[in-house]
Amino acid sequence: MAFSTLSSTALPLLLHYQKPKLSFLTSNLQNPFNYFPQISTLNPKHHHKMSRTSSIKVQASFTDLGIVERAIQLVQSSPPTWQSALLSNIIIFTVGSPLLVSGLSVFGIAAAFLLGTLTWRAFGSSGFLLVATYFVIGTAATKVKMAQKEAQGVAEKRKGRRGPGSVIGSSAAGCVCAFLSINGVGGEAFTHLWVLAFVASFCTKLSDTVSSEIGKAYGKTTYLVTTFKIVPRGTEGAVSAEGTLAGLLASVLLASVGYLMGQINVPGAAICVIAAQIANFGESLIGASLQEKEGFRWLNNDVVNVINISLGSIIAVLMQKIILQS
Question: Where are the transmembrane segments (predicted)?
């Protein structure tokens, strides 16, 4: 009875109300903004604004990507250009500024930047890495037992932070080699000689720095190289077994870096190490016999450094020429 009543009255009524809902849904699916008039009113402007914003963001992304790609291509320029050298040094000096500040004064950093740019232009990233390795090891050696060195009065000034004079004195020979290489002096036959002299100059300076600083820190007995008389640590021209060994190992390490970077071969690395030791012995002779003597007050540490690294470069080139002729 109840079922028949539902069938005869409710079912037609239910069907009657389903039809409008179905047609309403169909019409609104075809044009959904009719059902949401507020969106329909705002949509054209909103849609245009969103499209424009998205387009700007996409264009900015592509522009940024293009700048990064161009920067990477510039840094990787082969052979290096002045532009690639300048950009590379700006990036590296910005990232490495905390380390640079610990080892160099403000003007020292400026001088090092010029050296780095010149080095990259002449010898690329491998030459720059060699100089960077020299700086890191040399700075670390200078900081060893700094308090003890200061108490004994033999420490470097400004807590070991070197100024432009020290940077130039340590790199003058390397800069000359870089200029000779850039300008192609001597042609292709001399290209490898300028690289060899460049590596030898920094092997010489690192050996000198490490031997001096380690000798001041750990040298038990210090001898004057001209008379073998025992003298206090830090005396000009004085050497110690500990410092000499440390300097030898430092030159071997840096020459190995030059070899691994493809700048020199194994015989070239051996030449750089030998040339460094000979030059350092000559520097000790100059320090013991002339430095701080009457009439030679101009012969300060920076001048002696220039003489030292120049000797290392010249000896390396002469040894290489003799070997080639043999």
Answer: 90-116, 122-142, 163-183, 243-262
Nearest to 112 by CA among 167, 52, 163: 167
Using DSSP, state whether 187 is helix, strand or coil: coil
Lowest-pLDDT range of 72-81, 181-190, 284-293: 72-81
Q: Which of 11-15, 158-162, 257-261 has the highest mean pLDDT?
A: 257-261
Tens of pLDDT, residues 45-80? 544 555 555 555 545 554 555 676 776 776 777 788
- Mean pLDDT in the chain? 82
Ramachandran quadrant class, 163 (left: phi over 0; alpha: psi -120 to 50; beta: rest): beta
**Strands 238-240, 222-224: pairing kind:** antiparallel
Task: Categorise residue 240: left if φ over 0, alpha if ψ from -120 to 50, beta otherwise.
Answer: beta
Burial degree of 202 (CB within 10 A; 0-12, 13-18, 19+): buried
Rounded Cα–Cα distance for residues 275 and 313 (Å): 8
Q: Which residues, 6+ apart, have CB-to-CB distance to 19 below 8 Å?
A: none
Any alpha helices (H) in 104-224, and if so which ranges? 106-143, 146-152, 164-182, 188-218
Residue 322, classified by CB atoms within 10 Å of its CB into exposed (0-12), middle (13-18) or buried (19+), is exposed
42-75 as b/e: b if 16+ CB within 10 A: eeeeeeeeeeeeeeeeeeeeeeeeeeeeeeeebb
Burial class (CB in 10 A: 0-12, 13-18, 19+), 98: exposed
- CA 151 vs. chain centroid, Å, equals 33
**DSSP SS3 for 235:** coil
Q: Give the whole-angstrom CA distance, residue 174 versus residue 197.
A: 7
